Amino acid sequence: MIRKVLLKMDKKSKIYQTHKKIKEAISARKKIILWKLAGRPVPPPHIVKQKILKEYAEKYKLHTLIETGTFMGEMIDAMLPAFSRIISVEVDQALAIRAQKKFSAYPNVTIIQGDSGNVLSAIAADIKQSCLFWLDAHYSGGVTGKSNVETPIIQELNILLNHFASHHVILIDDAREFTGNNNYPTVEEVKNFITVRRPDWVVQVKDDIIRIHQAGI
Ligand SMILES: C[S@@+](CC[C@H](N)C(=O)[O-])C[C@H]1O[C@@H](n2cnc3c(N)ncnc32)[C@H](O)[C@@H]1O
Predict the structure, then answer these.
(1) What angle do CA 159, 126, 83 make, to 5 degrees?
(2) What pLDDT score does 164 carry?
(3) Edge-to-edge, what's the strand order for the sheet holding 209-214?
(4) Nearest-CA neighbor of 124 among 81, 97, 155, 82?
């Protein structure tokens, strides 16, 4: 009955949109509960990652998100209500153009086409406020792109350590891949890389995400 009414309804109407939002929220909640019941396997569903980013934004009062690896813009989409400014870098030209079109109605979203191992430098140099970094640029097969390395994570961290303001938070996705193969450093190497340069920072891994920020903030 409700379904029939909804099918006839204007998709832009407030009531239709509210119903859609409630349905999405219930489905997201369900996915998170099922993932927890299954013992938090890695990788977690994307909805769990979205929740983690939102929690960091809220806890550390971060209003700017800088993402490396745009892909289909799923994370940007989910973060629109949580950040006032979003910058995302995508190496693959077709994916970058697709995302630029997708978010063209949002003046607060900028998609930059390029290798984040290089272009992050200009972005970081321009930053005045504390940001949340979501470092997720890597080749993942299919239509995804690649620079000269499988993952530019070491170049990205190097750039951030050179420009870094103390209250930024860095989250690196796919901790399970950090095994020392395919250009990926090990998690231990990432820890050393950071703490040798910033002894007052903490590097923790939880739910497949490497989390880096200054201790005590
Ligand atoms: C796992 S996907 C990103 C998913 C997205 N961050 C999300 O959460 O919805 C990885 C993306 O990184 C891109 N990529 C690979 N190497 C890159 C590089 N050096 N610079 C920027 N993007 C890169 C790939 O083309 C791919 O689209």
Answers:
(1) 95
(2) 66
(3) 109-113, 85-90, 64-68, 131-135, 169-172, 209-214, 201-206
(4) 155
66 and 160 share one domain: yes
What is the domain extent for residue 100?
A: 42-214
For the question of whether the overall pTM of this predicted structure is more than 0.90, the answer is: yes
Same domain, 146 and 196: yes
Q: Is 100 in the pocket of ligand 1 (CB under 6 A)?
A: no
Whether the CB-CB separation of 87 and 154 falls below 8 Å is answered with no
8 and 113: one domain? no
Residues 29 and 109 in one domain: no
Strands 131-135 and 169-172: parallel
47 and 36, same structural domain? Answer: no
- Residue 166: band (very low, low, confident or very high) from pLDDT cuts 50, 70, 90: low
**Backbone φ, ψ for residue 194 (5° rounding):** -75, -50
Q: CA distances (Å), 122 to each of 32, 42, 89, 158, 164, in order?
A: 37, 33, 12, 13, 13
pLDDT, residue 10, reads: 79
Q: Is 118 in the pocket of ligand 1 (CB under 6 A)?
A: no
Per-residue pLDDT tens for 62-85?
999 999 999 999 999 999 999 999
Pocket mutation for ligand 1, best pick of 51, 54, 110, 116 (most atoms within 8 Å of C-beta): 116
Helix or strand or coil: residue 53? helix
**Number of domains the chain is built from:** 2
Residue 57 has pLDDT above 70, yes or no: yes
Confidence bin at 109 (pLDDT 50/70/90): very high
102 lines ligand 1 (CB under 6 A): no
